[in-house]
Amino acid sequence: MFCKNCGSNISDDAVFCPNCGTQVGEGQSQPQAAPVAENKPNNNTAKPQTSNAVGLVGFILSMVSVLFWIIGLIASGILFIVSLMLGIGAIVCSAIGMNTASKQNAPYRGLSIGGLVVGIVVVAISVILFIIGLAALSVMF
């Protein structure tokens, strides 16, 4: 049988739940005190939200990498390398942020996912353009 209060699996002849102490059956005599498990979280309390600054940083890095990538198209090819490094950092930070959000009920899970997607796209495009540039240089020389 299962406890009506906490859902623990208990024996059919139990009078009190050994996990939470709720009376679950009728006994011959009244027990003096029901055993109550200590250090058990109450199901009625919400988990406190923790900080997920890493997920937010991952999203910001991905947006900055896009900015450097666009500026690299206009101004200089060296900014592609900066964009690539920022994109890799965005992927790492966003992955850590998603993991933190999943495990600790932390905020910014959506921003972490967005940072991960944008970071992957920026890195993929930067690598493709780098390969195309190397192929163009090899044909020229």
Structure description:
The chain is mostly helical and 141 residues long. It has two domains: 1-45, no CATH class; 53-140. Helices cover 57% and strands 0% of the residues. The protein has helices at residues 53-74, 78-104, 109-140. The protein starts with 52 loop residues before the first helix and ends with a helix. The mean pLDDT is 78.
Q: Helix and strand layout, with pairings?
A:
Elements (H helix, E strand, L loop, with lengths): L52 H22 L3 H27 L4 H32 L1
Helix pairs in contact: 1-2, 1-3, 2-3
For the biggest sheet, the summary is: none
**Distance linking N and C termini:** 80 Å
Strand content: under 5%
What is the chain-wise order of helices and strands? HHH
**Count of the domains:** 2
Give me the count of strands: 0
Mean pLDDT: 78
Shape: rod-shaped
Subunit arrangement of the protein: single chain
Query: Segments where pLDDT lies below 50 for 5+ residues?
Result: none
Radius of gyration: 28 Å
The total of helices stands at 3
Structural class: mainly alpha
Helix content: 55-70%
Describe, in short, the structure shown:
The chain contains three helices and no strands. It has helices spanning 53-74, 78-104, 109-140. Helix 1 (53-74) runs antiparallel to helix 2 (78-104), helix 1 packs parallel to helix 3 and helix 2 packs antiparallel against helix 3 (109-140).
List keywords for this structure.
single chain; 3 helices
